[in-house]
Specification:
Blueprint: H1 3-6, H2 17-24, E1 29-32, H3 39-44, H4 46-67, E2 71-77, H5 87-105, E3 110-116, E4 118-119, H6 126-135, E5 140-142, E6 148-152, H7 154-167, E7 173-176, E8 179-182, H8 183-188, E9 194-196, H9 212-217, E10 218-221, E11 225-228
Parallel strand pairs: 1-2, 2-3, 3-7, 4-6, 5-9
Antiparallel strand pairs: 6-8, 7-11, 10-11
Helix pairs in contact: 2-4, 4-5
């Protein structure tokens, strides 16, 4: 089959359960990536975060229980680990719990969470911000001199998704092996002109890949994936 006939692009909203069901009808594997993702945007728009990140996830689950795809993968984030006051992190933590619940009650579809760190080539990432600042001749902004983040390349993220698809059995959280970077050190590789602007609302100084309880249950799958069951 030609590539042009293998893909269909459908316009819709994860909040719209009826439209979502139409889009998911006939799907064998579902990847749920829809979310309000930026911490500072989420902090000032909590009702929109709930409507998309939580209610939208419930819609995906309900449609899946009805349409019975073989597997549903939920894209989560390291910000779901000990989220404290972050509405974005809290919403993704609830999403993880919803996936575990859905897997327990489903008689056919398996549900798996994929917990990512920062993917460098995604919209709004720090590299994109720094590129624009360099082009404008402005200092590179860093939120805090000690801030660290887990990062991965887009190719690494795609490889992780493919491998997770092959090995996931349902009811687990899968976490890729990621390197932790000090943001200030990355900025210094690009410019000597650095400006510290302070942490954004609800932003943590350091992210985590596992809770202390999850560390006790995490097992390595191959060289690049951890599985929490």
């Amino acid at each position: 089959m030609e590539e042009a006939h293998r893909l269909r692009f459908l316009l819709g909203n994860v909040r719209d359960a009826e439209r979502l069901e139409m889009a998911m009808n006939g799907a064998n594997i579902v990847y749920h990536l829809a979310a309000v993702k930026h911490i500072d945007v989420a902090a000032y728009n909590p009702t929109e975060v709930i409507a998309t990140n939580i209610n939208g996830t419930v819609n995906v689950i309900r449609c899946s229980l009805k349409l019975k795809p073989s597997h549903v993968f939920y894209a989560s984030t390291d910000k779901a680990v000990n989220p404290i006051s972050s509405i974005y992190g809290l919403s993704k933590k609830i999403g993880e719990q919803l996936m575990l619940w859905a897997d327990q009650i489903s008689d056919y579809t398996r549900f798996t969470t994929l917990r990512f760190g920062n993917v460098k080539q995604t919209s709004g990432n720090v590299w994109e911000i720094w590129r624009d600042q360099l082009e404008a001749g402005e200092p590179l902004t860093v939120t805090h001199p000690e801030a660290t983040r887990f990062m991965m390349e887009m190719d690494e993220a795609l490889d992780f998704v493919i491998e997770a698809t092959n090995y996931a059995s349902g009811g687990e959280i899968m976490v890729p092996e990621m390197r932790e970077y000090k943001i200030l050190d990355l900025a210094k590789q690009l410019s000597k002109n650095i400006k510290v602007i302070g942490l954004r609302p609800d932003e943590k100084l350091h992210e985590e890949l596992f809770t202390e309880e999850e560390k006790k249950r995490a097992k390595r799958l191959g060289n690049k994936i951890w599985v929490i069951k």
